[in-house]
Structure formats: structure tokens, C-alpha cells
Amino acid sequence: MVYLVILSCCPILTAATYIGPDAVRTYPIPSGVETMDAYSIKVTPPQGSSHWIQPFQARVAQINETSGNSIEHNTSVGLFDFSGPIEIAITYHHAAVRTGVVRPYSYGIRPQIINNTIQFSLQHPCNLVIQINDNIFDTLQLLMNPIETKVTRADDPDVLYFGPGLNNGTAGIINGTLHVPSGKTVYVAGGGFLDAQVVFQNVSNSAIKGRGILAAKSSGAVLIESSSNITVEDVVILNPNGYAVTAGMSQGVNILGIRAFSSKGNGDGIDLFCCRDALIDGIFMRNSDDNIALYQHRWAYYGDSSNITVQNSALWADYAHPINVGTHGNTPHPEVMDGVTIRNIDILNHHEPQIGYQGCIAINAGDGNLIQNVHIEDIRVEDFQLGQLVNFRVMYNTKYNTSPGRGIRNVVVKDLIYEGNHASPSLLLGYDRQRPITNITFVNLQINGKMIDNNMEKPSWYSSADFVPLFANEHVHNLSFVSN
């Protein structure tokens, strides 16, 4: 039997993460979580015995374009920890395997398929989607962590500990809500299932961490308001009835290594409102609305945003945008979003029939917002279903805005690669002479292997943007395509 060895599918992890060779750690499926039988998963370290991973159920959504209703689908999730290398054998039981792929494609994993079993090897933990016969719903999301080296103790006075099982902890959950004080960490152990909204309000130096599952069946999963130095790390957020993570008017928010699934309406992944110094790193999101949304004023959130980084992540948007910047703001007292970095992202899907809400990466300034100094780099976009590659607009969407935005300026998009044939033309639309888009530079933009450059070989009367294709209106100034 031959296995492919992948040197690294998650380069942000290092050897220092691991406690020793050939270690695999699995967790029981807690009560309240449905199991799935579409896939069998066997994990084998070179010098050890095999481990069988029991998949559990997540729900994902498909839009009914006639009624607008959501069509929900069951999908499979496998979760375990390891220190490499390991060999993985996955058997599919619902149909004969004609094709099988491992995504993101950028990881370079080309599995061997023997009958109905897909086999490959890994050196490091990462998050993968196993897709059989081009079915995007009956997939296996394989979520892997490095083995924890620091033991979190249940008797630590600074820890609100939830062990294996349903709500297996002593911290008080009141009406489905767990309020976290300053200086405390909620820890959900592997095999643990916490059905509550975890709330950080007017606190500092607090966290939720662990290898367990956070559900919040009656609300959004994590709410951060008017707080500082808050960390959300590693937990799997499973089908909350709202956003996976909401942060408003907060500073020093770190969202690290989480994985989230949603299927309900307004099932956003991570939404930040008026936040500063925020880091989103190493996540996997599959949601029924925007995976990541960076907003200004809405509801009771006010103030400028600055220094926000999204990196090293994989995004799958069954509805709406993988990344959405702008939209909401404060017309009477206009706000600024300054300094957004988006880098090393794999976009696995984008499916949005509404033209006004398309864009794998959307920057849409409304409500008097000024969005400036945005750096986007190392973005790999796979062949998504329906939508645009990018959509940058100064807009007045009367459903959500009370005025147009002020402008978008100083945006660099570097090393964006798209391989596919389903993208509609991208749009760059300034609003008017007073509300333009200025200084937009695409560096090393590749569309199906073709480098888009102002000096590319083309008919002299063509625009380089035609080869994206991308339309920019008369209120877009200093748009350039360069390569280096």
C-alpha cells in the first residue's frame, strides 16, 4: 500500500507544539450530539495501533432560490488530536466512490483511492474537507488539533471547567447564558458539550478554550461586548441559533483555531463591530451567511475600527460572503475602518444568487463609512458555485443603510489566485465624485493561470480588467494591475 506524504498542510504549526511522536488522542461523542454513518475514519501512526474516529453531525444549508427558504443538510465532522506523522483511511458508505478530493487544494493532498476508501498521510494537524463524487453537502470535515501540552485542571480557581458530557461543570448557566468574569477561562474538555451562550461583557483577560463543542442552540455562541483581551480558542461551534462569535466595541480580541458550522438564517460566522486590535487566526468556517464580517456601528456598538487581521484560515460560505467588510455604520457621526489585513486564506465556496451580496471578498462602504488601508495577500479561491471574486463598492443599500459611504481607499490585493469558471464579473463601483474608490492595486493577480497586468499581451483597445473580468466605473481612480 502506497501513501502520499505531505510535508505540511498547516504551516503555522511548529514541531514545538507536539509532546512526542506517534500520538493520537480521540474523544467520546457527548450525549446530545448526533453521530453520522456516511464515513468510517481510521487513523494510524507508523509505530502504533489504529484509532477509529466516530464522525458526528453538523447541519449546513442550501438556499431555495424560489421560496427563499433554507434547505438543511446533514454533514459529517471528525475530530481528533495527533502528533505526526499519521496515515488516514476514510471509507465512504453512501455510494460508490467515483471521485474523491481533499480540500483545500492548496495543501497538495492527492489521495489514493482503493474501492471506496480514500488514503493519505499527514505530518501536521489541519482542517480538511473530504468531498466525494462532487457532493458538497455529504462531505466529511476532518478537524485536527495538536495534542495539548499544558493540562488544564478542573480545580484551577481561574478556570470554569466543563468535562466530557453535556454541561458537565459547576459554573452557573442561567437561562442558557454563561457570563464569564474578568480573569477567568472557560475550558471545554474534549468530549464536552456546552449548550450555552458564552458572554464576555465589560470584562478583561478572559477566554473560552478547549477541544470540546459549544452549541448554544437558542442563541449565538459567543458574545463579546465592551471588553478587552478576550480569547476564543480551538472549540468547535456547532450550529448555534445565531452568529458563532460576535464582538462589539472591544479591543484585543483573539479568535484562534476555532471551527464553526451553521444552517439557520443569519448564521454568520464571526462578526466584529467597532473593534480594535483583533486577530482571527487558523480558523475553519462553514456558515449559512457571511463567514467573517467586519462592521462599524450597528445596534449599540459605536466607534472606529483599526488593526484587524484575518489570516491562515479556510472559509466555506454556503450563503453570502466568505469575507465582508463595511456595510453598517453611523450616518450622523461617520466612522472609519483603518488597517485591515487579510492573508493566507483558502476560500472553498461562495454561493450567493443576489448580485448585491456577492463577492468572495467584499468591501462595501455604506452609512458614511470610510474604509482605508486594507492589505489582502496570499488568497487562494477555488471554483466556487455562484458569485463574484471581489466586490468593492461605495454604496447606499436601502435595506441596511441610511446613507452612502464616504469612500474606499488604499487597498492592495497581492497574490490572489482563482482557479475556476463560475465567477461572475467582479465590480468596483464608486458612488459619485465625492464618494469615490481610490488607489486600488492588484499585484500578481492570477485567473486560471493567466497573470493580469497592465502590460500584459492583449489588444491595445482592451483593458487588463477585461481578463478578470472586472468592471470599474468612472468613480474608481488609480486602479492598477502589476506583477513582480
TrEMBL record:
InterPro entries: Glyco_hydro_28, PbH1, Pectin_lyas_fold, Pectin_lyase_fold/virulence. It comes from the Eukaryota. GO terms for molecular function: polygalacturonase activity. Keywords: Carbohydrate metabolism, Cell wall biogenesis/degradation, Glycoprotein, Glycosidase, Hydrolase, Polysaccharide degradation, Repeat, Secreted, Signal. It is found in: Secreted. GO terms for biological process: cell wall organization; pectin catabolic process. Residues 1-16 form the signal peptide. SUPFAM superfamilies: Pectin lyase-like. One of its GO terms (cellular component) is extracellular region. It holds the Pfam family Glyco_hydro_28. Belongs to the glycosyl hydrolase 28 family. PANTHER family: ENDO-XYLOGALACTURONAN HYDROLASE A-RELATED (PTHR31736:SF9), PTHR31736. Pectinolytic enzyme involved in the degradation of xylogalacturonan (xga), a galacturonan backbone heavily substituted with xylose, and which is one important component of the hairy regions of pectin. Activity requires a galacturonic acid backbone substituted with xylose. This is Glycoside hydrolase, family 28. It comes from Penicillium camemberti (strain FM 013).
